[in-house]
Amino acid sequence: MLVGGRRRLGKALAEDLARDHDLVLTSSRPWGNATEWPGGATRAQVRTLHWDATDPELVSRMMADLEALDRAGVTLSGAVLVAGTFPEAPFGTWSRESLDATWQINLTFPLLCAQALAPRLAEGACLQFLLDTSVHTPWLQRLPYSVAKGGLATAVPGLARLLAPKVRVVGHALGAILPAEGSDAGFLAEQTLLKRLGTPADLCRAVRFAADSPFLTGEILTLDGGRRWR
Ligand SMILES: NC(=O)c1ccc[n+]([C@@H]2O[C@H](COP(=O)([O-])OP(=O)(O)OC[C@H]3O[C@@H](n4cnc5c(N)ncnc54)[C@H](OP(=O)(O)O)[C@@H]3O)[C@@H](O)[C@H]2O)c1
């Protein structure tokens, strides 16, 4: 299951995983167009759900969707919580509304998804969170976003303890892979020890590694080309 599996890194993960998994993908927008589905997968391989972090009925919608999957005999072998936003928010511009909006999608939504999904995950499944290398050194122009990811970083070992031994929990602290529009890719690459951006394939490998590592839980894997050691 990929929460936020329609665009960008979520889509790249979906295309990779579709090689050997049936998928459940969520998006904040209604689905409908089969051409958006990953890797030539057929309708039988991909189920789509409409989960919007801002929907006041989100929790009941999630429960109803997960019960329907259960009734259809779908077992979730793992879940990756991808959805997020990356808003610039310089100090001095913060408002209650802007902070709430940033934390709603980047913190509240993944926590509610984790709570809804955990009881539906198969024995030994891994629940994975996409974090940010900002959990090591916060982005100063995006501090509210960094705070949300820091909150999720705290949730990883906490949920690992709550959900063990049935379900494992892993976070990925990502450096720049698909940089935000308008950012300087050359500069971002220069900030890493390896002098390059990450690629979606780097993330796919890490997600598969976590899913396939039955003795791994409660950890955050940093995938940032060594940026945090500069
Ligand atoms: N890209 C990078 O280099 C990078 C670096 C560090 C960390 N990360 C983390 O990796 C994850 C994926 O990043 P990304 O760059 O691929 O995508 P992104 O632009 O951060 O968005 C991820 C997904 O969030 C979903 N989303 C947006 N608003 C939503 C809402 N209201 N309710 C539910 N879902 C919503 C979007 O899907 P829909 O529009 O289909 O709903 C989108 O595909 C994020 O958590 C991000 O913080 C990415």
Q: Can you tell me about this structure?
A:
This protein is of the alpha/beta class and 230 residues long. The chain has a single domain, classed as NAD(P)-binding Rossmann-like Domain (Rossmann fold). It is built from six helices and seven strands. It has a seven-stranded parallel sheet with strand order 3-2-1-4-5-6-7, with helices on both faces. Helix 1 links the parallel strand 1 and strand 2. Helix 2 packs parallel to helix 3 (96-117). The longest helix is centred in the middle third of the chain and has 22 residues, at 96-117. It is globular. The chain starts with a strand and ends in a 7-residue tail after the last strand. The model has no long low-confidence stretch (mean pLDDT 96). It binds NADP nicotinamide-adenine-dinucleotide phosphate. NADP nicotinamide-adenine-dinucleotide phosphate (NAP) binds at residues 4, 6-10, 27-29, 51-54, 82-86, 105, 130, 132, 174, 176-179.
